[in-house]
Write a structure and sequence with these properties.
Helix content is about 30%, strand content about 35%. It is an alpha+beta fold. It folds into two domains: about 5-70, Arc Repressor Mutant, subunit A; about 75-235, Chorismate lyase. The strands form three sheets. Strands 4-5-6-9-8-7 form a six-stranded antiparallel sheet. Strands 1-2 form a two-stranded antiparallel sheet. Helix 1 (about 5-20) crosses helix 3 (about 45-60). The longest helix has 20 residues, at about 5-20. The model has no long low-confidence stretch (mean pLDDT about 85).
Length: about 240
Amino acid sequence: MSKKEVIHLYKKVIEDLRAAIENGDYQTGDLLPSENELCRSYDTTRVTIRQALSALANMGYITRKHGKGSIVSEPKTGLGILSVSGVTAGIGTQKLTTTILQKPIKQDWPADFFFPIDDSESKNGCIFFSRLRHINETPVLYEETFITNVDLPRFSSRSLENRSLFKILKEFYNVEVTEGEQKIWAIHADKNISALLNIKTSHPVVHMKRRLQTNNKGVRIYSSLFCNTEENFLRDSF
């Protein structure tokens, strides 16, 4: 089996087991099939299966206990904010709703902006909006987004309520994310963020600042995000 085939199979094991857990085929406290059983089912080596199970453990889906096996953990929602596919894609079947706090407006870049911008971006200005994302009516993510104001006619009139920003950009402007950079901190929520996320000011939150490059070299997407991970974990696949 080639290295490429092994990587594909490794990802398939992860996705199959994750889907089975999310669909309720395995409940909290249930044992997953043993490593030997999984090896037979997927006709692969124990190394591949162990790597897949370790990835599921890192994602928070299972706990691995010596002598017992892989036990399904208390269910939590995986937030895909680490991925360029975005939050909406990461939530999957969970009930994700959005409150628009600031509708898209054209403006100058803030003087103390959190990423350096080039002369062209500075000249064109940006489109700014802010949203509060909820999962099953619980606020989990506050985001402020800035997009370079280039080749995005009528964007300010687009509705972003309960819709994926990335899908809107692709559908109406043929703009897709190609690569990105992100910086992540664990901080205590200030009064504003704690009020938005309905948590105490002493509660820890994840703060992320990200810059995404698109297939349109003039259009970049910048976001400042605050995430409450008390009932959710950050998730991504590699």
